[in-house]
Specification:
This protein is mainly alpha-helical. It is built from ten helices and two strands, in the order ααββαααααααα. The termini are far apart.
Amino acid sequence: MIESATVRLVSAVLYVGWAAVLLAAVRRRSPPARRYCYPFVAVVALAAVAVGLRGAGIGVVPIGAGEIEIPQLIGDYATYPLLFGFAAFVAGASRRYVGLVVATVLVMRVGYDLADLFDGALGLAGTGGILVGYVVLLWLYFGPVAAAAARQSPKRALFYRKTRNLVLFVFGILIVWAMFQLFGAFDPFTGNVTLEYIDFLLRVGFAAFVIANAETLVGDDDADGRGDGPDGGTATAGTTGGDPSMAGD
């Protein structure tokens, strides 16, 4: 059987290759659009380093009933808030809702660590945090954040819906994986291979999607009146001024 370390080292090489491909793709975007793309190329590059360190067995710390891999911890805690927060940003949501999305994702990630490392009530609370957090994300993305997206241009609203569906779908698969993992349904090899595949799909797939659609955000971000309106969303196009072109978005 292939060792888990080999799977991770191969994954690291793939991340490096895709980081180079994505960086080349970013250079074909307009300069204003590139600023939205570089953070996601950095996510892929960070994943290459983190997975490579894990493959080399570096950064493993025993805690409670399990162990924490520090490179994975750093990679996940840096990546998930960016991906999910960006989806809310694309919608033109207020900072309050973007922050709430980010906080919810962080609570879910902490919940997984608790469920993985501790037995009893603490582990059960962690599992509950994951499931409740996902329900909160669904409410946010289909409720107030979607309402903010409806006030954006049609192209940006479509970009939001696709971004939202992508992160919710892949993260939903990741949650299902986590439940199987927590209850011991996977052997070590299967668990490692499936996790690397899901992580790869989330990071590389999301980065490629953002780069392909980044031009949609050019110009809109300065015109959408981002801020905390009375309903917690951004100001509508009609309140940004008397410019008819802005009101038509």
